[in-house]
């Protein structure tokens, strides 16, 4: 019986190549297979489907009633096994990296339609991380889809030739070359799509090959492809097609030319699946779901962060999210170097009028960055492992004339350095630079051994000799080419280097460009990714202001991804998921012009914890806040229903203080203007609306949290606590009176006014307990902070606060509303007025095909 069943199950699996599961079962019944065995076959197939559906990673939210027909690779497959062999040859460990790739790509393929269904038009989205292996993932998805019968594969590879060429090369290497007889190509390395005379040669029944087409998101090119597919309509009824949209948030959404052309191509394909890949999904989830567009109505998949991936927070640190212990949130590695604001004018024209005739200067910071790049490259040659390429990125402007102006001074610097390798003073400067940098980032923290200057010095002549200076932009003939041996290159560019393109072996970045949208800023981070063998060596030179933006961005991104997972757990369909995501606070600071279909952003403080972490350090500003705080405490002593003193803990609690005492304090206290979430007017308006609509927030608990061992600070008669220590982050701005302490309030403090042991409660547990015990009571916490606040010696990225007076920090905890919430319609966005903005250049979308 077992042998008969196993044989029939293999027959069933073979039938799945030609029929969807329900049809395959009917074929078994037509063959006379007994109902008992058919039932067992369905049971086993269902078990395999459940395994795929219930994979721990990646998380997915799926439109109901989608059959999971794909249950994983089979022994007869050719395309997926070829990728596995290549990855092993490249040094990928069999477990867990390949297993995770196998699982995540299987999950995506399982959400596509069976290729033999009569007609389908799928829309999906896969969310990954910048430089995290999204290309490898979609290549694996394509391989598995090809193994099951998908015929046409169209990859939309960004808007620049460089990324399109790189993607074509990767797909040829991993899909075509291992199985050349299985593939036909409509595009080549150096040629985007041009119409072919005979569509039947590709799509006729006599041609059993898969068809690969890698195109730019360029109107001229896509128009040619759309017309050619229209002419091939007679052959496309039996042509299951998979369209992969790489960088799906760029150009696809809300563009007059590209968006309709993608939809036109899909209309020519009766069996088509569109899957977008992006690291910044904001725009894609703001498409109007009710429109005939590319909203991911069928599924959204959230890829996990791969092991060993360098992300935003690794380099820049981030702020603690609600519920996190601030001490457990790292400040990031000491890899960011400051470009003084005075240097910016030397490397980037102030205005468009200054572009003509602009001559960049090799400033001290740019010189150190280039010299460190040569040293790091030499050190990697000593180690002799990891990526064979070494690249430096210089990104100051989108303007090609500015890029080109760097060539002469950089070549001059290279020639001078080559001549100076026998100069002992020059070598001593290089030695000092290397020793300083390797002391700030110890190699041992990354499992590496330090390379000494004496070890790397013999490699320097070869590094300088092989170093090229490349202007990689739309007007240059130069291109980064990693296909013909190891590359050492200083790449100067703009948009062509800022999206999707992998800069192989990127070690050093010099980055002073400013942008106005978070999704664009996130994509600019070409330094994210994998650094096998040189994780201790990357460095980034940028302005303090940009570094602060990236730290803030790291917090937004982490919160967004955490909430994506939460929303995926709660959401029933991709539509309900996006409805939740649209209300996410991050969208108030990330959405760009692509938000035309989004609802108005509105702030709600219900269930939120708000805290100050930016301060000014001048005496007058601080005295005003001390005055506001002492007035609050004096009034709280007078009006509180009960006062609790906990001197051993350094705490006071004033219970049931009237709301007008709190709103008067908020009106008098100065929040830093870089803290848009701490908008006193918004908060006061919110409190008043809650009182009016729900009779909530009339009463507040006011607490003081101090350090029992700190010097005493007096708020009012008989109300004194010890000062807290909160050191400032190094850098962050050129303003000497600005301080960022990163995090003020601990999770424990959000429960300071609740009885019993709250130390083991999670953030959700605290909010649940507050909803039960204090459903309508707000909490305001005051923190007196020592004006010196020297950091502990282990905190390398911290400096003394050095304020002119003691600082008073404020934390607010709002109860979660029981019946909806009052919202205050006002965009919370960062003040970008002081930055020179250069957003993405979309003129290339409508240029000729070589644009």
Task: Explain this structure.
This protein is α/β, with parallel strands linked by helices and 851 residues long. Helix content is 37%, strand content 16%. The strands form 7 sheets. Strands 1-8-2-7-6-3-5-4 form an 8-stranded mixed beta sheet, sandwiched between helices. Strands 10-16-14-11-13-12 form a 6-stranded parallel beta sheet. A 6-stranded mixed beta sheet has the order 17-28-26-21-20-19. Strand 4, helix 8 (200-203) and strand 5 (210-215) form a beta-alpha-beta unit. The longest helix has 27 residues, at 544-570. The chain is globular, with a radius of gyration of 30 Å. The termini are far apart. The model is unreliable at 579-602 and 823-842 (pLDDT under 50).
Short description:
With 851 residues, the protein is an alpha/beta fold. 37% of the residues lie in helices and 16% in strands. A hairpin with a 2-residue loop joins strand 22 and strand 23.
Q: Tell me the fraction of residues in β-strands, as a range.
A: 15-25%
| Low-pLDDT segments | 579-602, 823-842
Main sheet characteristics: 8 strands, mixed
Shape: globular
Class from helix and strand fractions: alpha/beta
Average pLDDT taken over every residue? 82
Please count the beta strands (DSSP E, at least 2 residues each). 28
| Strand arrangement, major sheet | 1-8-2-7-6-3-5-4
User: Helicity range of the residues?
Assistant: 25-40%
* Termini gap: 65 Å
Using the CA coordinates, give the radius of gyration: 30 Å
The number of distinct helices, counting runs of at least 4 residues, comes to 27
């Amino acid at each position: 019986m077992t042998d008969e069943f196993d044989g029939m199950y293999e027959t069933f699996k073979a039938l799945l190549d030609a029929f969807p599961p329900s049809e395959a079962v009917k074929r078994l019944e037509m063959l006379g297979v007994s109902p008992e065995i058919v039932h067992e076959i369905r049971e086993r197939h269902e078990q395999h489907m459940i395994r795929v559906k219930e994979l721990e990673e990646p998380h997915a939210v799926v439109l109901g009633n989608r059959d999971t027909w794909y249950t994983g690779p089979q022994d007869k497959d050719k395309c997926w096994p070829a990728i596995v062999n290549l990855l092993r040859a490249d040094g990928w460990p069999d477990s867990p990296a390949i297993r995770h790739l196998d699982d995540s790509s299987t999950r995506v393929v399982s959400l596509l339609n069976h290729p033999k269904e009569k007609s389908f038009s799928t829309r999906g989205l896969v969310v990954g991380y910048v430089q995290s292996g999204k290309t490898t993932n979609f290549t694996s998805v394509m391989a598995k889809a090809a193994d099951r019968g998908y015929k046409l594969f169209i990859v939309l590879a960004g808007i620049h030739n460089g990324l399109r060429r790189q993607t074509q090369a990767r797909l040829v290497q991993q899909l075509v070359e291992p199985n050349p007889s299985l593939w036909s190509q409509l595009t080549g390395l150096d040629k985007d799509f041009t119409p072919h005379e005979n569509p039947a040669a590709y799509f006729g029944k006599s041609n059993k090959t898969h068809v690969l087409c890698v195109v730019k998101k360029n109107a001229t090119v896509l128009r040619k492809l759309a017309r050619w597919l229209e002419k091939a309509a007679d052959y496309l009824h039996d042509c299951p097609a998979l369209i992969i949209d790489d960088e799906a948030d760029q150009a696809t959404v809300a563009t007059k030319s590209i968006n309709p052309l993608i939809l036109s191509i899909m209309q020519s394909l009766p069996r088509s699946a569109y899957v977008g890949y992006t690291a910044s999904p904001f725009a894609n989830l703001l498409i109007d779901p009710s429109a005939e567009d590319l909203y991911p109505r069928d599924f959204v998949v959230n890829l996990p962060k791969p092991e060993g991936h360098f992300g935003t927070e690794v380099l820049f640190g981030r702020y603690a999210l609600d519920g996190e212990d601030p001490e457990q949130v790292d400040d990031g590695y000491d890899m960011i170097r400051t470009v003084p604001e005075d240097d910016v004018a030397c490397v980037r024209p102030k205005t468009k009028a200054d572009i003509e005739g602009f001559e960049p200067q090799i400033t001290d910071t740019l010189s150190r960055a280039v010299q460190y790049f040569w040293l790091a490259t030499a050190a990697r040659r000593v180690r002799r492992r990891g990526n064979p390429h070494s690249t430096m990125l210089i990104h100051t402007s989108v303007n090609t004339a500015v890029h080109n102006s760097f060539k002469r001074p950089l070549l001059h610097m290279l020639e001078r350095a080559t001549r100076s390798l026998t100069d002992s003073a020059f070598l001593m400067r290089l030695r000092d630079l290397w020793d300083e940098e390797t002391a700030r980032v110890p190699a041992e923290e990354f499992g590496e051994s330090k390379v000494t200057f004496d070890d790397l010095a013999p490699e320097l002549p070869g590094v300088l000799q092989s170093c090229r200076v490349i202007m990689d932009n739309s007007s240059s003939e130069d291109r980064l080419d990693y296909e013909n041996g190891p590359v050492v290159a200083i790449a100067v560019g703009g948009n062509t280097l800022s999206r999707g393109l992998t800069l192989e072996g990127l070690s050093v970045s010099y980055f002073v460009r400013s942008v106005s949208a978070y999704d664009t800023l996130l994509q600019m981070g070409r330094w994210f990714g994998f650094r096998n063998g040189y994780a201790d060596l990357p460095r980034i030179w940028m302005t303090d202001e940009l570094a602060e933006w990236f730290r803030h961005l790291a917090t937004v991104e982490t919160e967004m991804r955490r909430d994506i997972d939460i929303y995926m757990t709660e959401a029933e369909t991709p539509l309900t998921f996006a409805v939740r995501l649209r209300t996410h606070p991050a969208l108030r600071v990330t959405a760009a012009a692509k938000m035309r279909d989004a609802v108005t952003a509105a702030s709600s403080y219900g269930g939120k914890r708000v805290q100050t972490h930016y301060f000014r350090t001048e005496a007058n500003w601080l005295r005003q806040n001390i005055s506001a705080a002492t007035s609050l405490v004096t009034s709280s002593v007078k009006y509180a229903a009960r006062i609790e003193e906990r001197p051993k803990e350094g705490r006071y609690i004033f219970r049931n203080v009237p709301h007008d005492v709190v709103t008067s304090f908020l009106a008098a206290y100065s929040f830093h203007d870089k803290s848009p979430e701490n908008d006193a007017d918004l908060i006061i308006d919110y409190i008043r609306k809650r009182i009016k609509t729900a009779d909530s927030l009339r009463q507040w608990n006011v607490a003081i949290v101090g350090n029992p061992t700190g010097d005493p600070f007096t708020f009012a008669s008989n109300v004194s606590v010890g000062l807290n220590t909160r050191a400032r982050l190094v850098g962050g701005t050129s303003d000497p009176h600005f301080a960022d302490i990163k995090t003020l309030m601990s999770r424990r403090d959000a429960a300071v006014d609740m009885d019993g042991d709250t130390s083991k409660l999670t953030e959700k547990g605290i909010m649940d307990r507050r909803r039960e015990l204090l459903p309508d009571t707000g909490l305001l916490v005051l923190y007196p902070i020592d004006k010196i606040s020297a950091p502990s010696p282990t905190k390398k990225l911290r400096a003394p606060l050095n304020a002119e007076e003691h600082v008073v920090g404020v934390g607010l905890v709002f109860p979660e509303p029981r019946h909806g919430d009052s919202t205050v319609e006002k965009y919370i966005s960062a003040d970008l007025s002081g930055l020179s903005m250069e957003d993405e250049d979309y003129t290339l979308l409508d240029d000729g095909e070589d644009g």
